[in-house]
Write a structure and sequence with these properties.
By secondary structure, the chain is α/β, with parallel strands linked by helices. It contains ten helices and 14 strands. A hairpin with a 5-residue loop joins strand 7 and strand 8. Helix 1 runs parallel beside helix 2, helix 3 packs parallel to helix 5 and helix 5 packs parallel to helix 6. It is globular. Bound molecules: ligand FNR. Ligand FNR binds next to strand 4.
Length: 375
């Protein structure tokens, strides 16, 4: 047996994990359209990856119609979407798995073709994503990002309320907890970071003000779930979707210190050595490690993600930098990833072409190890 520490139990909130191989949240764009409700295919996919006492973090799911910017991603704002998610959760629970839902608002990482009434996407400030990045349209075409519309101060309570309602919807769907998506250049990170947040009200300017929306959203989720069933995902050194704080340390030190006393289920860091959205291989050299930098000021459970192998995960936990590791791309192509890592079985490589959208191919048709023909 490999990796004795990775395959040792861990308490996360009220849950006793049997091992520390978590599934990272992964957008796969295969919900029903136009309802954006999960369908039986999605339940099969998650059930394939469920293990007794294993944590799955379900893909980012917009909390409201304005928070949506990729074709075919599942929502968590309508009754139909809740019904669809309930079937996913039931299938995971039937295998003894634990499943959190990642709650998402994309902010400016959208296009008017997704927005109610064809309006402009909303953001902290009217600062467009650089033309080096391309938007996707509702029908899957590539387009330039538009100039977003800055949210009015009195609209922000509505964003918090949408996260609160989505947290309630996730509870109604039977999830075991929620993860707030504060990473990868989406709305909450747009508020955190100074390049995208140029507001002059109480949600902009100082670090305290820029962190306010994230903390209000986390508080709203806690009111629904209790803190021990709420996680937060951050990417302090990420560069996804034109994000990036010039000096991340003071900002994220404030955020981690503010989250510390709340008693959250976990804090989840994306290591900068992988690209946020997984669209390209990125091999960052000499960039700081988020888990290494912030572990000293975070006493709770810390999940790390981004470019981990079994060896690297075992080492990160053994060295005390993390308590669990979330795997993304290799969990896509290895539905039985925990078993393969534990037994040292070879991994099936992933096919990037089938990450986003489509049907079974590249989604539910990756074999488990026992189905592979002997070499
Ligand atoms: C992602 N990632 C991601 N992150 C997130 O917070 N919410 C999401 O919904 C998604 N969606 C997503 C889709 C796809 C296809 C990829 C490849 C990635 C990032 C993901 O959770 C993870 O942080 C990265 O993939 C890095 O981990 P790996 O793949 O190197 O283990």
């Amino acid at each position: 047996m490999n990796f004795p520490i990775l395959f040792s139990p861990l308490k996360v909130g009220p849950y006793q994990l049997a091992h520390r191989v978590a599934m990272a949240p992964l957008t796969r764009m295969r919900a029903a359209r136009p309802s954006l409700a999960p369908r039986p295919l999605n339940a099969d996919y998650y059930a394939q990856r469920a293990t007794p006492g294993g944590l799955l973090i379900a893909e980012a799911s917009p909390v409201m119609a304005t928070g949506f910017g990729n074709p075919g991603v599942p929502g968590i704002w309508s009754e139909q979407q809740v019904e669809g998610w309930r079937k996913v959760v039931d299938a995971v629970h039937a295998k003894g798995g634990i499943i959190f839902l990642q709650l998402w608002h994309v902010g400016r990482v959208s296009h008017s073709s997704f927005q109610p009434g064809g309006a402009l996407p909303v953001a902290p400030s009217a600062v467009a994503i650089s033309s080096e990045f391309k938007a996707m349209t509702w029908d899957g075409k590539v387009a330039a990002y538009e100039m977003p519309r800055a949210l009015e101060t009195d609209e922000i309570a509505g964003i918090v309320a949408a996260f609160r309602q989505a947290a309630k919807n996730a509870l109604a769907a039977g999830f075991d907890g929620v993860e707030i998506h504060g990473a990868n250049g989406y709305l909450l990170e747009q508020f955190l970071q100074s390049r995208s947040n140029q507001r002059t009200d109480r949600y902009g300017g100082s670090i305290e003000n820029r962190a306010r929306l994230l903390l209000e959203v986390v508080q709203a989720a806690i009111e629904v779930w209790g803190a021990s069933r709420v996680g937060v995902r951050l990417s302090p050194y990420g560069v996804a979707n034109d994000s990036g704080e010039p000096d991340p340390m003071p900002l994220y030190t404030h955020v981690v210190n503010a989250l510390g006393p709340l008693g959250l289920a976990y804090l989840h860091f994306i290591e900068p050595r992988s690209s946020g959205a997984g669209r390209a291989e990125v091999n960052w050299q000499n960039v700081p490690s988020a888990m290494v930098l912030f572990r000293p000021i975070w006493q709770g459970v810390l999940i790390a993600a981004g470019g981990f192998s079994g060896e690297a995960a075992e080492a990160a936990i053994a060295d005390g930098h993390a308590d669990a590791v979330a795997f993304g791309r290799i969990f896509i192509s290895n539905p039985d990833l925990p078993r393969r890592l534990q037994h040292g079985f070879p991994l099936t490589p992933y096919n990037r072409a089938t990450f986003y959208g489509g049907e079974e191919a590249g989604y539910t048709d990756y074999p488990v190890y026992d189905e592979l023909a002997p070499a």
